[in-house]
Amino acid sequence: MNSNNVAIRVEDVSKCYRIGMKEEIQDSMSASVLNFLKSPLRNFKKYRSLYTFDDAAPGKDSNSDFSAPSDIFWALKNLSFELKQGEVLGIIGKNGAGKSTILKILSKITRPTFGQVRIHGRSSSLLEVGTGFHPELTGRENVYLNGTVLGMKKTEIERKFDAIVDFSGVEKFLDTPVKRYSSGMTVRLAFAVAAHLEPEILIIDEVLAVGDAEFQAKCLGKMSSVAKEGRTVLFVSHNMGAVAELCSRVIWLEQGELKQDGFPSDVVMKYLSTSEEKVGSWTRPSDDGVIGRLAWLRKARILLGDDCSNSTIFRFNEKPQVEIEYEIKQKVKELGVYFWIRDTFNNIIWISSDNDKLANSEQIRNPGIYHSVCEIPENTLKPGRYFVGIGITGNPKELVEEEHQNIMNFSISDVGYPLKRRAGVITPFLDWKIARFGEQNI
Amino acid sequence: MNTSGTSSNVVTIIKPTAGWQLSDFKELQEYQDLFFFLVWRDIKVIYAQTIFGFAWAIFNPLVQIVVFSVIFGNIAKLSTEGIPYTLFATLGVIPWAYMSQGMGASSQSLISGKGMLGKIYFPRLIFPLTPLLSKLLDFGISMVIVLGVMVYFRVSPTWNLVYLPIFFMMMILVPAGVGLWFSSLAIRFRDIRFMMQFMLQMLMYSAPIVYSASSIPDAYRVFYSLNPIVGVIEGYRACLLGLPIQWIYIWPGMIIAIGIFVSGAIYFKRTEFLMVDVI
Asked: How far is B20 from chain A (nearest CA, A)?
């Protein structure tokens, strides 16, 4: 086998869409009547223009600019890349960067406006879990239906049927219409079918963003086993942890163009560090809602103890601190200031309160401005992105309690992260004692 | 499947659509399992959670036949060249019921399947063709009425039955052609749905379902038979009742039906890859 075997070659692919233009608004009665009468023709032109792009052509060989008419949106601009057999490629980028568009083109769902794609080998796409599922059909029937929709042959499904059912864990309900399933069961069954696809090239959208934590872990596990089997995989995700863990190469798209292509750790780090969405601090907007309260949150930030650089990317072995500033107007009992951390799957990793270790008698705080600082332990959080929420509680609750969801975020880089592809929500470095029988502890 | 490297020699090239082509019916074969399951899903789902199930496939046309027999047969006393009106109406209503349902469902197939359309690729042709096959089951079941009525009126089969497959094929071809055109048009212009409603009504009265084609003046008869639905219904009557088949009034419709189907397939193919972007 030639080691240079190309599985997917994307050559100068561009794709444009027509976006809605503002309708004219008439300011006189007669003008609007006239406008109404002319509307069928206008509508016809408008809906026709959705699929004609004669005015958009950037000129195939000239140095194309994409500045064509204002209602044309270029989802992809001259994108080219190659994917070799056995590579696991991650595609990252912000919303609207063109990730879904390139997936749709690779899945043959839509065609590029310019350029072409060559795919060598049989490919399957998984842009959604449970495509074709019908609520009136039973689980068994939906397995067959969904399987064929994903491109399996009937005989293939028959062969794998028991394995699929096993994986899904819904064997008891196989002959029940899916509409009576809980949503979790439906997703499990659907994923079980998808997990038994065996194409040479697998194209996956962020289908992992559904289901509970356990299910997501199962999906990720399946994904990494697929990746290890040496199959060619193209994977689009917002989950930097998953991308860094699963992929052997990452492409970063920005506004339809290829921004960077390289090793997962490099690209992901670069992406995270330039991502504008990073927020390392929060300030209460001009005392809003504090009137009548006994205590309230004022500010919060995430930082490294001795560093003021405002960076929100930390190494696996660093100890960032969460600092919360709050004001107490009158003496409050049972006061606690807390924060929680969520991962990109929306799992709460933990909630920690500054009164966790205090006895009840110590939880009374007098008026004043305070700040509570908590250190996030090093060598614990997996590389990836985390969201922080903060809250305050006390007695009486209605005058103290407030919460602010996801107001800050930070990232843990995988630079120096030694536990590649380790499953688990967190990956703490724990202490072990190793001893041989008959000896003293080493 | 061997995943260790040796790739099957399939090369897929995805590029902008180029001009007019005929639909790729060969590709359909590759996806025949999927096609089968989609048809089967349609069938399973239609009468899901109903008490009478497939009996509805008999009940609906039956009511129509009774109503027509009373109104057009007994009250209006339309001439049917000596054929008992109920027998006459049955042979019109049943193929028409298939064709009208087929046209309606096929035209809406892409819109109602848009969830799948945007998430997975398979030949888009499967969408408009699926209802045409699944509705054949209803048609088959309602043939019970035809048999019953024929037995009741003591109609004995003749060699004309040999031609029945031709009209059966034509009965599928007509809604297929209309469905191909309208499903791809409906993607862009939702007007189609509203148009369908009155179009089906007009079509019903344009065809000899409640009245006899012989009541059309001879001078206009060929022009009249350009409507392929006329040919289908006349053909069914002639085959089942052993009447002479008037081919001269059937050819025009047949040619038109084939024309609509072929042009529909070409048009469908041309718009196939715009569908997802526009829907």
From this structure: 15
Interacting residues of A135 by C-beta distance below 8 A, sequence separation 6+: A177, A178, A179
Q: Bridge partners of B14?
A: A117
Which residue type, as a one-letter code, is found at position A270?
K
What residues make up the domain containing A21?
A: 10-73
Asked if B1 is an interface residue toward chain A (Cβ–Cβ < 8 A), one would say yes
Cβ distance B11 to A145 less than 8 Å, yes or no, reads no
Residues of A with CB below 8 A from B274's CB?
50-51
Look up the pTM and report it: 0.75
B194 touches chain A (CB under 8 A): no
Confirm whether A428 is domain-assigned.
no
Tell me whether residue A418 is in a domain.
Answer: no
From the CA of A246, how many Å to the nearest CA of chain B?
Answer: 18
- The CATH number of whichever domain residue A253 belongs to comes to 3.40.50.300
pLDDT tens per residue across span B156-194: 889 999 999 999 999 999 999 999 999 999 988 888 888
- How many residues appear in chain B? 279
From the list A114, A117, A127, the residue facing B120 with the nearest CB is A127
Task: Give me A184's structure tokens.
Answer: 């979790």
With an 8 Å Cβ cutoff, are A120 and B11 in contact?
yes
Confirm if B279 and B187 have CB atoms less than 8 A apart.
yes
Phi, psi of B145 (to 5 degrees): -65, -45
- For chain A, the residue count is 442
- Nearest in space to A339 (alpha carbons), one of A326, A325, A353: A353
Q: Which chain A residues touch B8 with a CB distance below 8 Å?
A: 121-122, 200
- Strand-strand pairing, B11-14 and A114-120: antiparallel
Q: ipTM value of the model?
A: 0.84
Number of domains in chain A: 3
